[in-house]
Amino acid sequence: xxxxxxxxxxxxxGGGGLVTSAELLAQVTAQVGYHVKTFVTFPSQIMGGPxxxxxxxxxxxxxxxxxxxxxxxxxxxxxxxxxxDQVREGGVIIYNSEDFQLEDDGKSFGMRxxxxxxxxxxxxxxxxxxxxxxxxxxNMPEHYLPEFVTKRFTRGRPGDEEIxxxxxxxxxxxxxxxxxxGFSLGALEDPAPPEGNQIMIKGNDALALxxxxxxxxxxxxxxxxxxxxxxxxxxxxxxxxGKFVYQASxxxxxxxxxxxxxxxxxxxxxxxxxxxxxxxxEGIGMAWMAEIPCVVVNVQRGGPATGLPTxxxxxxxxxxxxxxxxxxxxxxxxxxxVEECFWAGAHALNWAERYQGPVILLSDHALSEQAxxxxxxxxxxxxxxxxxxxxxxxxxERYAGSQVSAMPIPGGPGPYVANASEHDGMGDTTHLPQRHxxxxxxxxxxxxxxxxxxYERENTDEAIALMTWGGSKGSTREAYDQMMxxxxxxGWYYTMFLNPLPPALLEELKQKELVxxxxxxxxxxxxxxxxxxxxxxxxxxxxxGTPFKVRELKARIIDRMQxxxxxxxxx
Length: 571
Fold this sequence. Notes:
7-stranded mixed beta sheet; alpha/beta
């Protein structure tokens, strides 16, 4: 038997190398041409607590993190008890026999993982012991792992050869233990390498890289899970003349700093999560009123309050579109894949420059930590869009009229432009009713500059359609593909541009009998927005802190389709 898809989960206490094991397995297989995706979930304490990391390896593009496990590596009894029922029929469980023992159940075998690692002279080689055992279970060609180890640890440092030798020995010890067990999962099909160059990257890193490529000048952020790694990436990579990165003392300082930078003519960005976005409310409102370009990245997590800081949820959509008091509708885009993270990082900055105001870019915890091999972005396609700037003489009224206008830069000609009070065309404070009407209509009218008919569409003649958003895209698309293969027809729509929605997309959705919206929140936030715009939309919700499982989501979609058809017959 040969497999074209393989899922392995490493489960135990956080800090024990689980994430490293999953990422190493993904890197090894990606380098030889497989498609890979990782997923990790952990508690909020710094060390310890129940954690699992997962890698999915496939001969075709990977959309979700995988429903069932081919291999479970359980480092302790709690991990075994928690995850054993997710191992598929014919799967294998490897458990740490130094921590606990199991009776022979026909699908498990134990390894003294740390003891085997220490016998190599490198107690840190436990990951390699496990990878060696997994490689044997799937009949992985023997040269894959040693070649990867040699390449990874050849760094021109003293002791490299000893480390390489110890790790290769650990691979062999793990393989020998798996061989003794008598288990085999059948060989993986040979890889069908993707066309073109690939990079292995995480969602947060891809987003940061996209922003840098699009000309980001200024980044200020405050550490908060799961957005911290964006700040770390910027500190390491946003360098050179005219570039500035700073770790602020609070989210309030962060938003005020990037509003100031936007006022001074710089492309500016911060990153945060739900609690931090709440603290930024007044600053975002100021950027909206004063028409100052800036980008806030909100990497969503479970909430409200502290909530589930290291779990995934899509529950900040409504608060992102209306993040401040008063009449505010901030442009919002939401990423649905690691590849989209790169392009959205660039596009969000350009949106802010184009309409001259704040933009919110939504990601989520699962995407932030997810490593995946994606096509190397073609940076020649990245646009560094800059605002209209004023270069005339004094007396200019920047806020006059109903369209976006050139923005004066401090030190140059033109009036003071950063008044957060209601103002007239010059920017002077006024409470006159007519002025408030004019300026409100001006601010909302500028959103039309961002209307782009960029969206995905398939099976457009179907009366029922799927329209998911953000990080639920992968699971929903895999469910859709399976349904199509099984003869269950349904329409498919998707865009990362949520406010404003592509006008042509909205018109198509209005023609449907039913639009099903899979999303990870209780309220059904996106479907409520669609209903307000005249779409017969209904959410399929989940709020467990974990992504949709494809099998369960597909069943719920089919059930709702059948119920809708039954309702039509009864009518």
